[in-house]
Amino acid sequence: MRYYSTRGKTDYTGAKNAIIKGLAPDGGLFVPAEPLTPYAPEYLPAGNYREIAAAVFEPFLDDYPEAVIEQAVQSAYSVESFDHPDITPLAKLSDRTHILELFHGPTCAFKDIALQILPHLLNAAVKTTSEASEIVILTATSGDTGKSALEGFRDVPGVKIIVYFPEKGVSEIQKLQMTTQEGSNVGVFAVEGNFDDTQRGVKQIFNDQEFSSELQDLGYRLSSANSINWGRLLPQISYYFFAYRQLINRGVVQAGDKINFVVPTGNFGNILAGYYARCLGLPVNRLLCAANRNNVLTDFINRGTYDRRRPFYRSHSPSMDILVSSNLERLLFELTGHDKEKVLTWMKQLTDTGSYKVDQGTLEKIQELFWSDYANDDETLQAIADTYRNENYLIDPHTGVGKCVLDRYRKKEADQTVSVLLSTASPYKFAGSTIQALFNKEVIENLSEFEMIKVLHRETGIKVPANLATLEKKPVKHKQVIKPFQMPEHLKKYLHKL
Ligand SMILES: *Cc1c(COP(=O)(O)O)cnc(C)c1O
Questions:
Q1: Per CATH, the architecture of 90-109+235-472 is what?
Q2: Test site for ligand 1: of 267, 268, 399, most ligand atoms within 8 A of the Cβ
Q3: I need a surface site. Which of 12, 55, 98, 259 has the fewest CB within 10 A?
Q4: What confidence tier does 131 reach under pLDDT thresholds 50, 70, 90?
């Protein structure tokens, strides 16, 4: 498979190079340049998670030896890293509602599925290209990505991983997850200010050509682990197939029956993997895009205008508090039949004016497959409470948004199709919001997040993930706080020391 950019100004390239580069040099995103070959229903990938993942990856990574893919899959999706033998187990809520648990990895959120394997793919790519420099992964995080990237890249040879998080912009648990990080090649720094300040600091480093060549002279090359990298999108396609295979195995569907997927969405990476799964022949009826109060995607899917000029809200589902969904660019490129001029125009309008409107034909294509609604904080907490009381199953606030939207979809569209709700985080990772949904205010007043985890465990009896249970006692290793303007100089000095 060859890849090229959604903005059409780069040459064809192989998977290895697309993964090393992350972002295409013209500012676009790498997408498969060749048509995908759909599986016939009777030949959909089968087996356990690792077998399905390897089958899905192989055509996309044809410049990797099969043995390397096999090895990467075995190392990434092991029972040492995931606390469930199915890796992404499918739980049953009712006959037609199933929950795909994507939170059994080391950091208890779905980003682990991609970030556990990306380092293996990157490392293998670097080894066989003429790349002599060491790769330095820089990540600005609002919480989940940073820890997930640290866990994925720690002690990977030839790679260093540096994470910046806003000093006051992450939860107590998220902060401790990062500041207690072990590994000989990791750097973790708090940055004064909010997430935007942190993100801007990292972007400035990436955009500074002079600084890049200075680093190059020192033997380093910058790369990114955020969700625009094809190496993060591809691994997510596998679990859509895995969920479907489970439904076949349990006799819920027969090969070829269509199902819906409900996806709590922020940057549009997770749900886009569902779109690609459908292109590969997975029988998908509808992809439900669930947003929180930052409902820019809901408006877009319903009306065809993307408009980020709106207030930004902090919600109970913070990993979905996003107004610019980067991966949407890939969907537009696919649905316009790879029309780079159109995509370029829309993306330029977004940068210049903050908004763009797609043509009627494109909107119709979007609406044929996607459906969207959003849930505010009260509705989210209500969905958590209802699901726990009625189905005896505890969901986190991101998944709560999805559940609320699924219920609304069924009411509005009278569609009884079997639906899989993607659960993107463990309820314990967002214990504060989850507990608020279940108990009245007096119970939880003045509790630390760790105390909340204990209360939640006591009341529900659900097992606390080992990595969160031991977190409180881990020594803090990374205490440095820096100012945004100090980031480049500080990075240079730090790389010297590592
Ligand atoms: C990142 C994240 C999301 C959003 O996923 P996208 O791929 O950005 O749409 C949803 N829930 C959780 C818990 C996340 O960490």
A1: 3-Layer(aba) Sandwich (3.40)
A2: 267
A3: 12
A4: low
